[in-house]
Amino acid sequence: MATILEMAAEIVAAHASTTNMTKDELVSELGEVYNALNSLEKGELAAAVEEEQGPVISRKKAFSKDKIFCMICGKGMKTLSRHLKTSHEMTASEYRKQFDIPRSQSLAAKSYSETRRQMAIDRGLGEKLAKARAARGKGKAKK
Questions:
Q1: What is the residue-level pLDDT of the chain in tens, covering all 143 positions?
Q2: Do the beta carbons of residue 77 and residue 83 sit within 8 Å?
Q3: SS3 content of the chain, % helix, strand, coil (to 5)
Q4: Burial class of residue 36 (count of CB atoms within 10 Å of its CB; 0-12, 13-18, 19+)
Q5: Which residue, among 97, 70, 100, has the nearest Cα to 85 in the 3D structure?
Q6: For 30-34, which contacts have Cβ atoms below 8 Å and span 24 or more sequence positions?
Q7: Residues paired with residue 12 on neighbouring β-strands, in sequence order
Q8: Dihedrals phi, psi of 77, to nearest 5 degrees
Q9: Cα angle 4-2-33, degrees, rounded to a multiple of 5
Q10: How far is residue 26's CA from residue 50's CA, in Å, rounded to a whole number?
Q11: Residues 15, 49: contact at Cβ < 8 Å?
Q12: Cα–Cα dist 103/111, whole Å
């Protein structure tokens, strides 16, 4: 049977093969996996999992201009909704409720939102939408 350290190394190697990780992240994850496997072997992990998980990163640090950080795992990205569904199997509203985030707070980085807004303006999407609504309104008035 493999030792706990060998098992931890295999788990981290498998994760690192699909995810870009820095040297510090690799070392940190190896330590976390080793500790988790060690606790599991001793039967201590069940008690630790039942404890309420607090945020990994503060709300103030989670929302920056260029990235938004997941308060569950600490990963930074442009938008959070897809990450929440795929990695944590939760909706944006469940996430907001868990960490008491107001509905007015966007779950996308400010720079990403600004870029998308400018792209829509450049393409004239607002004007096209107004024309379509006006045309639809005239169509309903004739009936």
A1: 578 888 888 998 988 888 888 888 888 888 888 888 888 887 765 444 434 467 888 888 889 899 999 999 889 999 999 999 988 899 999 999 999 999 999 999 999 999 999 999 999 988 988 999 999 888 776 66
A2: yes
A3: 65, 5, 30
A4: middle
A5: 70
A6: 33/8, 34/4, 34/5, 34/8
A7: none
A8: -155, 180
A9: 25
A10: 26
A11: no
A12: 19
108 phi and psi angles, rounded to 5 deg: -135, 150
- Rounded CA-CA distance 97/103 in Å is 9
Distance CA 92, CA 102 (A): 11
| CA atoms of 14 and 8, how far apart (whole Å) | 10
The whole-number pLDDT of residue 119 equals: 94
Angle at 19 between CA 14 and CA 23, to 5 degrees: 90
pTM for this predicted structure? 0.53
Q: Residue 12's CB: how many other CB atoms inside 10 A?
A: 21
